Amino acid sequence: MSQSVCILGVTGSIGQSTLKILQQHPEKYSVFAVTAHSRILELVEICKQYRPKIAVVPSSKVDELKQHFQNHNLNNIEILSDEAGLIAVAEHPDVGVVMAAIVGAAGLLPTLAAVKAGKRVLLANKEALVMSGDIMMQAARDYHAELLPVDSEHNAIFQCLPEGYFQTERTGQPKQGVSRILLTASGGPFINHSLEQLQSVTPAQACKHPNWSMGQKISVDSATLMNKGLELIEACHLFAISEQFVTVVVHPQSIIHSMVQYVDGSTLAQMGNPDMCTPIAHALAWPQRIQTHVPALDLFINQKLDFQEPDITRFPALKLARQAMQNGGLAPAILNAANEIAVAAFLRNNIGFTEIPQVVEQTLNQVEGGSAESIERILLADQAARSVAQQIVTHKGS
Ligand code: NDP
Ligand code: MG
């Protein structure tokens, strides 16, 4: 019987890559529900091709979507709306697998709903885990969800870890012979820029990643290295270790997707061409393997693998994220919220590129932390951080 899949954020870059794989394996997977936020025409095309049972959009887009469905004879697709609709499809009893590929904090509650419904959850939406870390991981254990990493680095680490390592309580110490995680970073498009040059980079330049094709927000995060900071926090939660056991390694070719070191001196790496279809296919089929269109690595072409230490003077976002993880509690949620506001302001040309980490740092200094004991508490901190970050942005832009 085929597995029925819900794709949260189907119109995005990860959503599209997911469809590509599902299309290759129609006997194994069917699309049950899809969600979109602004790209309604793209959603209609997807619905024409994949005929899901349910589509979710913001309530402001429902009439428009209904009209399109009528025009294309798609009236049998049910339309749900807003966060309640996202949660309903994420926990729907007919769904087996949920791809969590909404960008940012908007994905938190639907992702958590999927985890609490005990689904196999393919986690792309790293912001959800950064915000809710311990709560999300505890829910995965309590409700027997399979929370599998799609982020290429974490998927690589997952592949290199010993069997059974996953989803244990966060004690902080690596175990089962693991000594360290090496989290690779491409370094982004500005890896060789000086601080002065960084000050004048434009949103278009920041969104043009050398190795990966991604949504705008994560592209900017990759350029500031905040993406690696968020991934550091993501790794600590997924693999139940404290941040001192995670080393960030800049590896510009993005061929090694991350590594795990063991106490006997072994270092295991997962390699491949940079294409998100590989980690998505791995998480979908795990513990089996399924075919993708991604060509095997040709080491005679990719002959050179370089490594260097990250420069936290030019890219302070990484330092801020590590500090937030050390501080714990609400600090990662505050960091994430401030970053979302700062990136949006940069994309609107309201602040400069080097002001993004400044907004994050100032927000962290101004918003009170505390313990992340409940989702309500986390959402309140998220809101508080957003309003403080917005004030800082307005001040900088004036
Ligand atoms: P995109 O911007 O391409 O897609 C984001 C998706 O989320 C779209 O479907 C969008 O809908 C939807 N969305 C945006 N805002 C909201 C909202 N407020 N409520 C509901 N849905 C919303 O992003 P990516 O696909 O690149 O990234 C998705 C997630 O995956 C991010 O968390 C990112 O960090 C992570 N990720 C991405 C990788 C990549 O290679 N792209 C790699 C590793 C992780 P619409 O388009 O209709 O507006
Ligand atoms: Mg990544």
From TrEMBL:
Known catalytic reactions: 2-C-methyl-D-erythritol 4-phosphate + NADP(+) = 1-deoxy-D-xylulose 5-phosphate + NADPH + H(+)
Entry's EC annotation: 1.1.1.267
SUPFAM superfamilies cross-referenced by the UniProt entry: 1-deoxy-D-xylulose-5-phosphate reductoisomerase, C-terminal domain, Glyceraldehyde-3-phosphate dehydrogenase-like, C-terminal domain, NAD(P)-binding Rossmann-fold domains
Residues annotated for Mn(2+) binding in this entry: D151, E153, E231
Biological pathway: Isoprenoid biosynthesis; isopentenyl diphosphate biosynthesis via DXP pathway; isopentenyl diphosphate from 1-deoxy-D-xylulose 5-phosphate: step 1/6
Cofactor(s) required, per the database record: Mg(2+); Mn(2+)
Organism domain of life: Bacteria
Protein name: 1-deoxy-D-xylulose 5-phosphate reductoisomerase
Source organism: Acinetobacter bouvetii
Gene name as annotated: dxr
